[in-house]
TrEMBL record, chains A, B:
Domain named Alcohol dehydrogenase-like C-terminal: residues: 178-303
Domain of life, source organism: Bacteria
Name of this protein: Alcohol dehydrogenase catalytic domain-containing protein
Residue ranges occupied by any Alcohol dehydrogenase-like N-terminal domain in the UniProt entry: 25-135
Pfam families per record: ADH_N (PF08240), ADH_zinc_N (PF00107)
Keyword list, A-Z: Metal-binding, Zinc
UniProt KW Zinc keyword: yes
PANTHER family membership: DEHYDROGENASE, ZINC-CONTAINING, PUTATIVE (AFU_ORTHOLOGUE AFUA_2G02810)-RELATED (PTHR42813:SF2), ZINC-TYPE ALCOHOL DEHYDROGENASE-LIKE (PTHR42813)
Gene3D superfamilies associated with the record: Medium-chain alcohol dehydrogenases, catalytic domain (3.90.180.10), NAD(P)-binding Rossmann-like Domain (3.40.50.720)
Cofactor(s) this protein cannot do without: Zn(2+)
């Protein structure tokens, strides 16, 4: 089959790789119907050192079950399913606590002999625990929004849940990438009163306004912090969702959060420490968030997508075929595409 | 009156200072019946640069109302009251949210013209909001435990509440000072299943066991982290209460916490950043805590002290008169005293 392999910064190729097959009785093989490029893929795309063997790519996909192992009982061939970006057994203590990203029998796509999502098919370990059936047809117009359950919409939701967004609360979302915009959508869904979006790409912040942002702040750094303070009577917001992952944006998040408030970090941390010293202590600031336990959120988030009341799939601005994936990376890195959908 | 003034590291004096009087209609003047030396006082005692004018000391006290301003309506002369370590109006939005340490009209003792607790009397601003009446006599044997409502027991409670300790949960408390021991007591009270105390002073950890610690780990640094891992099947504990405030103990806390768990920091931060990078993100680690909103906890914690079911006052190992306060500092700095009670 065809699949995506990254060999170094800027070097993404679509190549022939072995077809996946059942290896363990808990596996399923899924033919990919839609996948996409993640903002987090742009970090290695910018920084990865050259590798002779390369690394498979992609962790967001939905598709059709083509084969199942002997112990898979919740799925059958032909089911349309969405795959959260971490596979998990959904039965261990961490999974039962709502943290499938720390599953005792789980793991990541595109490593350790598991396929990546940016290809024609994927062997999914722990298929019963991981895959969630979608009650639509393979040609449904809802597929882009359903695909966001794999990662980006669940990740935005994770940011607002962990930062305790709710009715009457104010939240700042730092970053107008797809995760940030999905956090805006999730904050609106959970009833936030004020949703301030920090971003400087007008096409993106316009979509943010449609998703529910009440204010847009294009200023960056200290100026952006000051602007949010002005918009909140000097206090900052109850919640801050950090959807970039840079050292500076994390520092800004701590400058924006209200006393007693919560910073939830979603952007893959490009820093090793954060400035959480005496002042944050006196203000009882909480820092939380992390890799979103997407599997644990899908049942809650699915109905609103099925009835059309939320449309997180609007973050996809471009669609490519499988051989167009390298172009998709380029477009996202250039910021000409917000997020690229792949239709193999 | 006599009161404590610190002039620099190791230089604490008890001196004559002006008697406090009502300055604002919301003030009360409290004659101090019991006060104490705080572990946090040891930081300036170790590090303060010499100052000609010195700084008043003390923020934990209980006493008798001697005078009230014209707008004070909840208190009368002769009431025995405990003062939380931050004064606050108890009506602003932060106070209503349970965060009186961020009160819009609040502040700290021993600064800005407000007396310190380590003296014979204190002018307490926002007296109605701040002071809580104690239904005991001035010679009650419960006074030491009631005094801990001012700070140390509420602070321990804050650590376990914010780190979500409860039935079935495991918690590590780092530090066998009075705050750490009060955190153990508070964790026991809230039903924690496993309470691991990290400390190397046997007299203190023995009291920790009586307070509810199920395990004591005297090892420090990486060895201590490994020992906690061993005691928890490799996972670490759901909660970690950091009751020291050093950079290394904060790093250890992050090494001890279980995926999805919470580190609550109580020790006054002597660091400016914490190593909360990619790994903590993948593990969905939360860092929270801070200055305890003692005022908000007193009503909840008072009954168990009054009926004798908890005795946080056992952290006081030594008692001094007002002129013995410099000796009290020395004894705490030398670790010969755990916590020193002052009986002016």
């Amino acid at each position: 089959m065809r699949a995506t392999v990254m060999y170094g910064a800027g070097d993404v190729r679509v190549e022939n790789v072995p077809d996946p097959g059942i290896q363990n009785p808990t596996d399923a093989v899924v033919r990919v119907v839609r996948s996409c490029v993640c903002g987090s893929d742009l970090w290695p795309y910018a920084q990865m050192e050259h590798s002779e063997e390369g690394t498979r790519m992609g962790h967001e996909f939905l598709g059709v079950v083509e084969d199942i192992g002997s112990e898979v009982s919740n799925l059958k061939r032909g089911d349309l399913v969405v795959a959260p970006f971490v596979w998990s057994d959904n039965t261990c203590d961490f999974c039962r606590e709502g943290l499938p990203t720390s599953c005792r029998n789980g793991g990541f796509y595109a490593m350790d002999g598991v396929d990546g999502g940016q290809g024609e098919a994927v062997r999914v370990p722990q298929a019963d625990g991981t895959l969630v059936k979608l009650p639509v047809a393979e040609d449904s117009a809802l597929l882009p929004s359903l695909l966001t359950l794999s990662d980006v919409y669940c990740t935005g939701h994770h940011g607002v849940v962990t930062s305790r967004v709710g009715p009457g609360k104010s939240v700042t979302v730092i970053g107008d990438g797809a995760v940030g915009l999905c956090a805006v959508l999730a904050a609106k869904r959970l009833g936030a009163e004020q949703i301030i979006l920090l971003g400087r790409h007008k096409d993106r912040t316009d979509l943010g306004r449609e998703f529910g942002a009440t204010d847009v702040v294009p200023e960056r750094g200290e100026e952006g912090v000051e602007r949010v303070r002005e918009l909140t009577g000097g206090d900052g917001t109850h919640a801050v969702v950090e959807a970039v992952g840079a050292e500076q944006t994390m520092a800004n998040a701590l400058g924006i959060v209200r006393h007693g408030g919560v910073v939830s970090r979603l952007g893959v941390a490009q820093y090793t420490s954060i400035p959480l010293g005496f002042d944050a202590m006196m203000g009882n600031i909480t820092v939380t968030g992390g890799a979103a336990p997407a599997r644990a959120y899908i049942e809650e988030l699915l109905p609103d997508i099925l009835d059309g009341s939320v449309e997180p799939g609007r973050v996809f601005t471009h669609t490519v075929g499988i051989d167009g994936i390298p172009d998709g990376y380029r477009a996202m890195a250039d910021r000409t595409a917000l997020k690229v959908l792949v239709q193999p």
